[in-house]
Amino acid sequence: MVRPIRTIVCAIVAAVAACAAVEVPLPKEIAVVQPATSVPKEQAAFSGKWVGRWDNVLDSVLVVEEVTPMAALVVYAYGVAPERGISRAGWTRVQAHFEGPDLVVPLNNGREARYHMQDSQSLVATFTYTNPVRSYPGIMKRAAN
């Protein structure tokens, strides 16, 4: 009797894990370049791969490929969130810029993602739409490149 129950429990755990593992697409070629010593350490700290969720709903990945004193080349990627009308995952590579301590990633249609370094392993993030105006919070954690 123990064996069938264990099998059922294992099947349920595997199904839940499969549902929780949402794919966020990334380009095949990503290269994180070590920031030059001329880049302020507060900005250089953004370099690398970050993973998280917007409003506990939409999976997201930010890869900061290259950082200069004024800007950063980033890949912004996202999964699906039917409850937010996002039925297709995708990614874009864009030039981001720094506003004070924040990294600001401009996206299409008046949207932007803003990231603030909380500590060396996490970012506090805000995703903002301009029309209509609304925003969603997020937390990003540093991931292995």
Terminal CA distance reads 45 Å
**Largest sheet, if any?**
8 strands, antiparallel, barrel
Low-confidence parts:
1-21
CATH class identity? Mainly Beta
| Corresponding CATH architecture | Beta Barrel
The fraction of residues assigned to DSSP E strands is over 45%
- What spatial form do the alpha-carbon principal axes imply? globular
If helices are DSSP runs of H or I spanning 4 or more residues, what is the number of helices?
2
What do you see in this structure?
Strand 5 (102-107) and strand 6 (111-119) form a beta hairpin. It is built from 2 helices and 8 strands; from the N terminus they run H-H-E-E-E-E-E-E-E-E. The protein has 145 residues and is of the alpha+beta class. It has an 8-stranded antiparallel beta barrel with strand order 1-2-3-4-5-6-7-8. The protein is globular. The protein has one domain: Quinohemoprotein amine dehydrogenase alpha subunit, domain 2 (Lipocalin), CATH 2.40.128. The termini are far apart. Helices cover 16% and strands 48% of the residues.
